[in-house]
Amino acid sequence: MAAADALLTGLPVSTLRGATPLLFVLLGECLTQRAGRINLGVEGQMLVGAAAGYGVTALSGSPALGLAAGAAAGALLSTVFAVLTVAVDADPFASGLAVWMLGFGVSAFAGTALVGLRIDGWMPWAGGITPTIALALALVPVCGFGLLHTRTGLRWRAVGESPEHARAAGVTPWHYIVAGVLVGGVLSGLGGAALSVDYTRTWAEGMTAGRGLVAVGLVIVARWNPWLALPAALLFGLAEALSLRLQAADSAVSAHLLHTLPYLASLGVFAITCARLRRRPGGGAPAALGALLAR
Amino acid sequence: MKLPHRLARLLAAAAFAVAPTVASAASTLGYIYVGPEKDYGYNTSMDLGRQFVEKTLAGTKTLHVENIPETAEVEKVMERMIRSGANIVFATSYGYLDYAIALGKKYPKVAFLHAGGLKLGDNVGTYWANSDDAMYLAGMTAGAVSKSGKLGFIAAFPIPQVVRSINAFTLGAQATNPKATTTVIWTGGWLQPAKEAEATNSLVDAGVDVIGEQVDSPMTIAQTAEKRGIYMVGKDVDVSKLAPKAVLTGASWNWGPTMVKLVREIEAGTWKPSHVRGDLKDGTVVLDPFGAVVPEAVRKSVLARKGDILADRFVVWSGPIAGQDGKEVLPAGTPMPMEQLESMQFFVKGVIGTVK
Predict the structure, then answer these.
(1) Looking at this predicted complex, what is its ipTM?
(2) How many CB pairs under 8 A join A and B?
(3) Which CATH class is domain B2-130+254-278?
(4) Low pLDDT (below 70) residues in chain A
(5) Strands B275-278, B124-129: pairing kind
(6) Helix pair A131-149, A151-161: axis angle to 10 deg
(7) Which of residues 172-231 of B touch A (CB under 8 A)?
(8) Where exactly are the structural domains of chain B?
(9) C-beta atoms of B38 and A205 within 8 A
């Protein structure tokens, strides 16, 4: 009983906490990909967001300003990806890797001044909810409704399916692609800042530890649907919380095995949805993305 | 004064002509770190050592490279450093040892100093320090301050150095609270701030009120502990500035003097590769200042035990020590041999968790 208590006390909020930074990035990458680009640079965008967010919070004393700075830094770095893949039509995968490395380097360089600075983030509200959790949850319907039920969303999706047809219908594709990349930049920067300012109250070089790439992978699990981004992020958050809480509750399972839980769970859902969507080509992927992969 | 000194050095060099040393005036030292030099943790402690050497030994040049994984890449980095003039290489992470030994054969005139491990080469020695005494004293503090008697420990990987810390922490806690237990959470990585924060939260939710740690840097755990209103003891560097309410004390490194001594020996030609080991007594390990919350009586009893350790009246790794299952691992009155210490793969009684 005591072990079960230790496992379950705080598990829901723990899941939410862990899912929050990921949810921001996942929503952003979802919108980027629906406009027809895969941006692997989100890892770097998260890192500059985390560093900028931490630095501005330390300087101003305001975590809200920190989040804004993180979003701005993420957006700024994503313009590099936009310029590379839209203006000069560079390979999106190579461009994404370049942005990732750039973000890592810039944040590490600027971040050395931040190590050892102390910040006071938000005190959690009742139940352990913090403003970043609330913001991430609120963004799910905004992105879901905006993409799937508005005229702008329809054009956005049309560009992702077929830029040629969208152009024939009077839409300028690159406007939407750039918007998609920038929104992805804002949200991944926010995710990074949520991680450093609210979740960990730490800046450490390379602190995202692959979470940006996890988000890129989870877009597939979420079937490119912002509404499904929520359960996908929660699944990962739950699995990670469990991997730590099972240890705190003295389970006999090897910790090495437990650490694979978040990835196993995501892979499991991925396999199931793929099997169920076999008859639908692409399984919900924007067609223009498929073309990117096929070339 | 200068000439005889040089002459003495030359003579020493001649006498030790077989020894793989370079008796040049000033050395160039190459430092390799596994993580960021400014991590406010393990790598920072090594870099503080580097800065101390540079300050203490006039004319000594140092090079340093950060974020080098424990793979064949470190060989390339060492070779690059040697080509840039380094004649002494400080390989500061545990997993560099085999690469250092391999390169030592290729560059017999370069001296390699590796952090920990039990292998030597003709020109490869190790340096390390036993932080268990300080961890034991920090554990005593933790056990005395804890109200629930439930302690936690967040650590990266179940390697011997970490297992020793967890055991020393627990033995110390049991010296002030015989019923104290330590619940262990492995994060599976040296630098995983998100997991460290969530591991701290998990332990707090399970009723733990003091946490020990051995990950790259104590900073995330310290900040999260303060946010949740519990206490922690640090390791590697003192982070009390970041979380003054949460940090009780800690076990910090002070590598500078050991490094200076080794460099001097190498320059004088008297160095022979060996396993150099420091401890609380010689100052390589420091018990951090107590946080404001630690009561006077607790400080007194911890410092009294520290005095016993410094005067050899008390030995942490001395029997009777019981394993997790209660069976005796070390009989009463027996000190634990160094080989057994440095390959420790068991938990003592009172630790909750697995070493697998």
Answers:
(1) 0.88
(2) 128
(3) alpha beta
(4) 1-4, 6, 278-283, 290-295
(5) parallel
(6) 80
(7) 183-189, 191-199, 201-203, 205-208, 216-217, 219-220, 223-224, 227
(8) 2-130+254-278, 132-252+285-352
(9) yes
